[in-house]
Amino acid sequence: MKIGVQLHPQATTVKAMRDAWRAADSIGVDSLWTWDHFYPLYGNPDAEHFECYTLLAAMAADTKHATIGALVTCYSYRNSQLLADMARTIDHISDGRFVLGLGSGWFERDYKEYGYEFGTAPGRLKILEKGLPVIKERMSKLNPGPVKGKIPLMIGGSGEKVTLRLVAQYADQLNTFGPPDNFKKKNDVLNEWCKKVGRNPQEIERTVAIRPEELEKASEYAAAGADHLIVMTGAPYDLSAVEKFVASR
Q: What is the pLDDT of residues 220-239, one digit of tens each?
């Protein structure tokens, strides 16, 4: 079972985040993530907050082992061709450790305060679906291309009619949420979509975002089909449960 950490970029400092991702990388986590929002998602709505992709560039330079990425990028915040170029550049900074995590977006405050059209959930999914081939095409034109020839694509979400179909069609990784019975249900739906589109389901890594205390359910998540647990944590970043898990593997 792989283990990762998502560091929330709210109510914190850049120094604290850098210290935390360096520490997580040194104890041997498999992946490091932050989120792609412009305002806090919980607690004080006006607390300190930092932008995702700037942080990812620093994370790429500061770390050596773990893969890195956004859990997940809100597709509609950036031009798709620019996003491909940003991802490729961070991939080079990290020496080939970048994962492009994508989602359709949901946090209305981000959209309203930064001047993006919020629209509807189905509409945002259509925008994401239309953009996936554009990102792939731009990635193929960039010079130089990704370090390892291809940047893994993660799609985050749980929608059974559209999101999981897009995962089956395009993604190398799925990220969704627990508890284990919910994760199993989404996993089973994804497997059905793989059959429908002619995709080998074993090609898609299954990741699940969990709270630190849910590491006690690691065996349940494994039985539900999870390959990779990603522990979500805010400041102050307590990595003790993750360090214990890594040591026990």
A: 999 999 999 999 999 999 99
Sign of the alpha-carbon torsion through 28, 31, 35, 36: positive
Q: How far is CA 84 from CA 79, 124, 186, 203, 237, in A?
A: 9, 19, 28, 22, 30
- Structural domain count, the chain: 1
Q: Which residues have C-beta within 8 Å of that of residue 171, sequence separation ≥ 6?
A: 153, 154, 155, 204
Closest CA to 76 of 123, 136, 10, 146: 123
Q: What is the CATH number of the domain that holds 32?
A: 3.20.20.30
- DSSP label at residue 10: B
Q: Are strands 73-74 and 67-70 parallel, antiparallel or unpaired?
A: unpaired
pTM listed for this prediction: 0.96
Distance CA 230, CA 249 (A): 15
CA angle 248, 211, 103 (to 5 degrees): 115
